[in-house]
Amino acid sequence: MDRTDGTPEVGIAMTQVGIAVDIPEPWGSYLTRRRAEAGDPQATFVPAHLTLLGPTEIPLASLPVVEERLAEVAVAHPSYTLHLRGTGTFRPVTEVVFVTVAAGISECEQLAAAIGAVPELQREHRFPYHPHVTVAQDVAPEALDQVYEDLAGFSARFEVAAFTLFSHSGEARWQPRRDFRLGG
């Protein structure tokens, strides 16, 4: 049970979860490799993805309920086409370069909002939701500039038929826990 200040009680087993759309092959490994080549150490732990819910700490015991609610969210949203094209950046606010979403933006926003409305997953956000695929973060400015230019012509179009719940122990790569098929 949470204390009145919103922090978990001592002794409650916690886990970190995230929810994302995997970027399929051949693009997923290509974008992950480009992130590693830019010198981004997160490339080792985080495969290419489009985030729907960023890292969120929840009680381990709440995972079954979270999974039930995510299944309800998935059934209520149809599959859609995602078109990734070109690059963008959040600089100077944050040192991030990303591949932009050219089509499928509203579908990502609606799905992210529905996931974020799951009571166990509600949290404060540092920035408004902006669907994208990070390809470099917190690396030298020259590396950010290089990946921004190198991937400016990138384009991939694919069907998003599911999203994935990932968990993280803090010691290794994010691990897929369960896929949720859209539209049932």
UniProtKB/TrEMBL annotation:
GO molecular function: ligase activity
InterPro entries given in the database record: 2H_phosphoesterase_YjcG-like, Cyclic_Pdiesterase
Keyword Transcription tagged: no
Keyword flag Ligase: yes
Superkingdom: Bacteria
UniProt KW keywords: Ligase
Signal peptide limits: none
UniProt-listed Pfam families: 2_5_RNA_ligase2
Name this polypeptide is given: 2'-5' RNA ligase
